[in-house]
Write a structure and sequence with these properties.
Oligomer: single chain
Distance between the termini: 77 Å
Structural class: alpha+beta
Radius of gyration: 48 Å
Order of helices and strands: HEEEEEEEHHEEEEEEEEEEEEEEEE
Low-confidence stretches: none
Number of strands: 23
Largest sheet: 6 strands, antiparallel, barrel
Strand order of the largest sheet: 3-12-15-14-13-16
Strand content: 35-45%
Shape: rod-shaped
Length: 363
């Protein structure tokens, strides 16, 4: 045998052994049993619900508004000769205090002239009345007392005109008296000055706003809330109002609801009365409204709520089903809800889109 033939025999043997081993391994793989694995169950965390009865607190924000805002507008024309030193923005003025005074000279003269005109008119009426009585007497002497005296002979038209002149003079006198009083303008109520637009020596008129102010006692808190929360409030509901920058708290009371729902925000305004002089229109405040006492409330994490009104509840077979709830209040990571029962096991782990009846594993 030569060497080439021997090498060929060795190669054939090696290939035969390799093919045999491959067939054996392939047969074992083909008939080896496979381990069946079921679907992986979601692992969730749950809490057991404890229900309670409590008064609902509606947390909101509001703005201080003044319902009574006035303008100091003189009703006569004249030069300002006095301005109260308190008449400046931000200052408080009590009801009845003198705000400004207009030069009285022309109006005092007008009053004296009106008095003189009235006296003249009254004298003219007396003279005309005497003339009328004299004319009537003369006519009766000539034609007899049974004869009716004609109105022109009795000077009835002249007498009526003289009486009308008296009434006109009285009206003029009354107007002169009123105009003289209008030279002094007083505070109509306890107020805070907003703006001042007049100076000493200025000539004012009914077309010029001298100052603006608001009634201290007309302050209210305007609070926008969701319309569905109105059912949680009594008509005499109270509230606590506090400023953002201080720790001061003011007591307030619900006095009325707004007339309509805001088309942009879908909220409705409610108004609270507050008895304090320490607030200013435009201030932003925190409001805690005292609502009705509600039974069957429960506290759950906000993470347990899906689509704003649904939670997943676990049954005895470890399957979950959706349950509708109503969120009554929400504070940071926790919500107060209505619609759950004592002992309900609520899933607090976010699940995403799952089907009702899904089996889960509780952590």
């Amino acid at each position: 045998m030569n060497k080439n033939f021997i090498r060929l025999i060795i190669v054939i043997l090696i290939l035969s052994v390799g093919i045999g081993i491959f067939k054996i391994l392939n047969r074992k793989k083909k008939f080896s049993p496979r381990t069946k694995r079921g679907p992986t169950l979601p692992i969730v965390e749950t809490i057991k619900v404890k229900t309670f009865d409590d008064r609902i607190i509606i947390n909101a924000h509001g703005t201080v508004v003044a319902q009574e805002i006035g303008s100091l507008i003189p009703e006569i024309t004249g030069k300002v000769v006095y301005i109260s030193p308190k008449l400046r923005p931000g200052a408080g003025i009590s009801k009845g205090e003198l705000l400004i005074k207009i030069d009285e000279t022309d109006y005092e003269l007008a009053l004296e002239n009106a008095k003189a005109n009235l006296m003249h008119a009254e004298n003219q009426y007396k003279i005309m009345k005497a003339n009328s009585e004299q004319a009537i007497e003369a006519y009766r002497l000539e034609y007899g007392h049974h004869k009716k005296v004609p109105p022109l002979i009795a000077k009835i038209p002249q007498l009526k005109q003289a009486l009308a002149n008296v009434e006109k003079a009285k009206v003029s006198l009354k107007k002169a008296e009123i105009d003289l009083k209008r030279t002094k303008i007083y505070a109509p109520y306890d107020l805070i000055v907003l703006t001042k637009n007049v100076g000493l020596g200025d000539v004012v008129s009914p077309s010029k706003v001298a100052a603006t102010y608001y009634d201290i006692h007309s302050l209210e808190i305007k609070v926008p809330i969701q319309p569905e929360k109105l059912d949680l409030l009594d008509n005499n509901a109270t509230a606590q109002v506090s400023l953002l920058q201080t720790n001061r708290v003011f007591e307030a009371k619900l006095i009325r609801y707004g007339p309509e729902i805001n088309q942009k925000t879908r909220l409705i305004d409610i108004y609270l009365s507050v008895k304090t002089k320490d607030l200013r229109p435009g201030e932003f405040v925190i409001v805690k409204l005292q609502g009705k006492i509600i039974k069957g409330l429960a506290k759950i994490p906000c993470s347990a709520i899906h689509n704003l009104d649904t939670v997943w509840v676990l049954n005895r077979e470890n399957k979950i089903f959706p349950k509708k709830i109503k969120v009554m209040d929400e504070q940071e990571m926790e919500a107060v809800v209505l619609g759950l029962k004592q002992g309900d096991e609520v899933v607090v782990t976010p699940l995403g889109d799952v089907e009702p009846g899904l089996e889960v594993v509780v952590k």
